[in-house]
Amino acid sequence: MSVLALRLAGPLQSWGVSARFARRTTETAPTKSGVIGLLAAAQGRERDADLSDLAALRFGVRVDQPGTRIRDFQTAHHAVTGKSMPVSERFYLADAVFVAAVEGEDALIDALYAAVRAPVFLPYLGRRSCPPAEPVDLGVRREADLRHVLEDEPWMAAAWYQRRLDREPFPRLTVIVESTPDEDPGDMVRDQPLSFDPRHRRYALRGYRTDTVSVPNPRARGGTRRSDAHAELTPAHDPTTQLPLLSPLDGA
């Protein structure tokens, strides 16, 4: 068995499970159905294609930077009739970072790794309006366990967020891991994709467990020097160089 690790980071993300009608909510972490959709799109699968092999993958996610939940208030008109559409609320996670992983047979994981490096359809983070900030692939881990991969990956949070927690040399991050058939299912969520066919999307229940893991903070006090941290905050250019230089006597 192998594990494909993904870094999911961008200005906005939105991972809905129970989003319906005019209120489109988001979970606090990526969903299995959302990540499977990203992988299926990378492979170029149509929405009515068979997903059984992807749905059989075991899924887990680590919350590296939780982000901020924001609400978007939307109005729209029908493109053909011009008729007003129902006012809707859409919720997003702003400035969040996650490490997601899927575990499965070597051949399928290799095929997915190749797909995310050269996707047929562009990946997005839950909604098409939420592109990733950079390539999502972190590589394949051979003969690895899903939870161990989530424990061992370096902390992917932004530098400013790591500095915010500089008093914590080993911050604890939330991990959400899908239960195996041999385990007690734990909590349940309707997030097991069966079909993305827009005429009849279907999802089943799956079990998951929530826990925490510790990761090293490279910007903990005693690690990165404060002067180095200040240098990272300083922009590469100095806008004051464009101002005219005045002699102290000019203003007299």
Short note summarizing the structure:
The chain is α+β, with helices and mostly antiparallel strands and 252 residues long.
Helix fraction bin: 10-25%
Output the number of helix runs.
6
Mean model confidence by pLDDT: 89
In N-to-C order, the SSE pattern is: EEHHEEEHEHHEEEH
Beta strand count:
9
Identify low-pLDDT runs. none
- Rg, rounded, reads 22 Å
Tell me the major beta sheet: 9 strands, mixed
Using brief descriptors, characterize the structure shown.
about 250 residues, alpha+beta
Please explain how this structure is put together.
This protein is an alpha+beta fold. The chain has helices at residues 32-42, 52-55, 106-117, 146-152, 159-164, 226-233, and strands spanning 2-13, 23-24, 58-65, 68-74, 88-104, 137-142, 172-178, 187-195, 202-214. Strands 1, 2, 3, 4, 5, 6, 7, 8 and 9 form a 9-stranded mixed beta sheet that branches. Strand 8 and strand 9 (202-214) form a beta hairpin. The chain is globular, with a radius of gyration of 22 Å. The termini are far apart.
Give the topology.
Layout: E1 2-13, E2 23-24, H1 32-42, H2 52-55, E3 58-65, E4 68-74, E5 88-104, H3 106-117, E6 137-142, H4 146-152, H5 159-164, E7 172-178, E8 187-195, E9 202-214, H6 226-233
Parallel strand pairs: 2-5
Antiparallel strand pairs: 1-5, 1-6, 3-5, 3-7, 4-5, 7-9, 8-9
